[in-house]
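Entry 14. Structure prediction run on the chain below.
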Amino acid sequence: MVQNTSYQNCIEACQECAAECLSNVVSMLGKKSDNACPKCCLECAAICRLCVEMMAIDAKFASEACRLCVKVCEWCAEQCAAHDHDHCQQCAESCRRCVEACQSVAK
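Output returned:
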């Protein structure tokens, strides 16, 4: 496995983002949403978990997975930020941190 700070930071950000997104889905149960939240959270958690797995094995296409993760996390951050709920705002912030970390791997 490639041992570098970018990978480690991205793995940690993806793990945090996936957990935050799934927590947000639970918090949104029974609540109406006028946009793609919480669906975006499910998709975001899935791509974040995939990125972690790809980076953990130093996969050939890890950087491509991270590029897709950037797009999904940006979408999720936008959707969650549109809600006033604290849990949605926390999720949006976690997605933004993940975008920054994944961009360093997705070069």
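The chain is about 75% helix and 0% strand.
Filed with the rest of this week's runs.
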